[in-house]
Design a protein that fits this description.
It is built from 4 helices and 40 strands. With 341 residues, it is an alpha/beta fold. The strands form 6 sheets. A 12-stranded mixed sheet has the order 8-11-14-17-20-25-28-31-34-37-39-40. A 10-stranded parallel sheet has the order 9-12-15-18-21-26-29-32-35-38, with no helix packed on it. A 9-stranded parallel sheet has the order 10-13-16-19-24-27-30-33-36, with no helix packed on it. It comes from Aequorivita sublithincola (strain DSM 14238 / LMG 21431 / ACAM 643 / 9-3).
Length: 341
């Protein structure tokens, strides 16, 4: 796809300074820009690159003042970074604007779907599935019985959606995500043998939820595993049965949340965090990467460590911990002197 400077300025409500008819067909970093590419300048540290870049078009802030000759056409906007992000979103919408049903696919006779569906080859749609308008389902996606998929949602290649799962509107389910597999429920008998506890609940994703590649969200034993609206989950995260994650909480990669834990809204959880089961985490909590959480947390806490404790206390303690050999050496020296006295 090719776009002219005039077309891009129209999308961004910007002003062209240079050749309005110049065309671009790719995006590039400003230091790697070449003819036919579009880039942007937002960070002042990269200003010197604009005088050498070969990019055909560069998006800049309105207050940018050139101090040397430019070979690139400028598009001036209020905020270059936000404008470039807006353009990326627009580009993705155009690129992924697929419709129609490819072959071969399987669609149950009892399934219902709305307008402008895209269904990629080798996908499976089970009994009583309900799919909204403008949904895009890429090749090799499995959707089990009684699943609901809301308007404008996207399911990428290889996603597996087990029965009874509910996906809200404008959700993004990336490749190899598994929604609704059985929770990890087993009970031992008198011989120590483990028997499976039936998992009869489901998974519910509210609107505007993003789930990264390889992430798994288990169905509830009873009731629902609930991911509330606006939640963003990174890659390779494990959410166990009966967990609830509050609105607009974000969780980074390789985090595991054990069963029946409740996480509040607007939390920020770093990568490789381990969260024990049956605890309650309040709103606006921040948990640093690789922390271990084994207790209830109040609103607005910030923690680090395993087991985690207050972020400020952790940093103070770490100063002593990293110097522990020297401290012990001094301690032993003093102890020896005291023994001789």
């Amino acid at each position: 796809m090719k776009f002219t400077a005039a077309q891009i300025a129209g999308i961004l409500n910007g002003t062209v300074e240079g050749d309005e008819s110049v065309e671009v067909s790719q995006l590039a970093k400003i230091e790697e820009g070449n003819k036919g590419s579009l880039t942007f300048l937002a960070n002042p540290k990269y200003t010197h690159y604009i005088y050498a870049t070969q990019a055909s078009i560069t998006i800049v802030n309105n207050d940018f003042v050139a101090t040397d000759k430019l070979s690139t056409t400028l598009i001036r906007v209020e905020n270059a970074y936000k404008a470039f992000s807006q353009l990326l979103e627009y580009y993705n919408q155009v690129k992924m604007n697929k419709t129609g049903i490819e072959n071969p696919v399987f669609i149950s006779e009892t399934a219902k779907y709305g307008e402008n569906l895209y269904l990629g080859a080798f996908s499976y749609i089970g009994e009583n599935v309900k799919i909204g308008d403008n949904v895009k389902i890429y090749p090799n996606v499995y959707i089990g019985d009684n699943v609901t998929v809301g308007n404008n949602s996207i399911l990428f290649t290889g996603a597996k959606i087990y029965s009874e799962t509910v996906i809200g509107e404008s959700c993004v389910i990336n490749s190899n995500v598994v929604l609704g597999a059985d929770g990890f429920g087993f009970t031992p008998n008198e011989k120590g043998e483990y028997h499976k506890v039936p998992q009869t609940g489901n998974v519910i994703l509210e609107d505007n939820v993003d789930v990264g590649p390889g992430t798994t969200i288990d169905r509830a034993t009873l009731g629902s595993t609930l991911i509330k609206k606006g939640v963003k989950l990174d890659n390779q995260i494990q959410i166990a049965h009966n967990v609830t994650i509050g609105e607009n909480t974000v969780i980074a990669a390789q985090t595991g949340v054990a069963g029946s834990t409740k996480i509040g809204k607007n939390c920020i959880i770093g990568g490789q965090v381990g969260i024990a089961g049956h605890i309650i985490i309040g709103d606006n909590v921040k948990i640093q990467a690789q922390s271990g959480i084994g207790r209830n947390l109040k609103d607005n806490e910030t923690l680090q460590g395993s087991p985690a404790f207050g972020y400020g206390d952790f940093n103070k303690s770490y100063v002593y911990f990293k110097n522990l050999p020297k401290i012990m050496e001094r301690f032993n020296t003093v102890e020896k002197k005291l023994d001789h006295e």
